[in-house]
Amino acid sequence: MEKLLFLSKFIRSPRTIGSIAPSSRFLARAMTQPVQWETARNIAELGAGTGSFTRYISRLKTPECQALIFEQDSTMRNALAADYPEMHHYPNARTMSHTMRLHKINGFDYILSGLPFMNFPQELRDELMDEVERSLAPSGTFIAFQYSLQMKKQLAQRFDDIRITFVPLNIFPAFVYICKKTI
C-alpha cells in the first residue's frame, strides 16, 4: 500500500515527491547510522514521505529526544501522525526554525532530509539550506540523500566537514551527505 501511495503521489507531483518508490531499508540505515542516538535530544526530518526514516527515528531515539517531522503532502503527513503520535508533525520545512522555538528547542542535533533538492529552483534550495543552518545546534549534523552529486558544491559552501557515502541498494542508487556544522 505504501509503495502504491508513493507512486501515485509521484505521478501527480514528481517535482515535490522526487522518487517513484519509498527509500529502501539500506538507505534508511545509511541515513540514521551517523546519529548518536544515546545523546541526541532534538532531531528533525524533512520530506518524511511515507516514513522510511521516521520508522528508524521512532525505534532508535530515546524517550527524551524530541522529533519534529516535516512533510508537505497532507495524506502522507496525516498517516505519519497516526503511526507516530509521539512525534510532532508539520507541513512546511521552510518554517523549521520558527517551529522548533514553539517546542523550546534551541537547535537540532540532527536534521535528516529526504527532500529532492535537485527538483527545486535554486531560490528554494537556498531558502531551505538557510533554514537548516539556522536550525542546527552549534555542533549539529545535517544528513541528506540525493540521487546525484549536484548538491556537493552548495553543501561545501556551508559546511566544512562533509562525508559522502553511496547506497547502491535503493530505487534509485543514492548518495548520503553527512554534513557537520563546525561553528
TrEMBL record:
InterPro entries: Methyltransf_25, SAM-dependent_MTases_sf. It holds the Pfam family Methyltransf_25. It comes from the Bacteria. Gene3D superfamilies: Vaccinia Virus protein VP39. This is Uncharacterized protein.
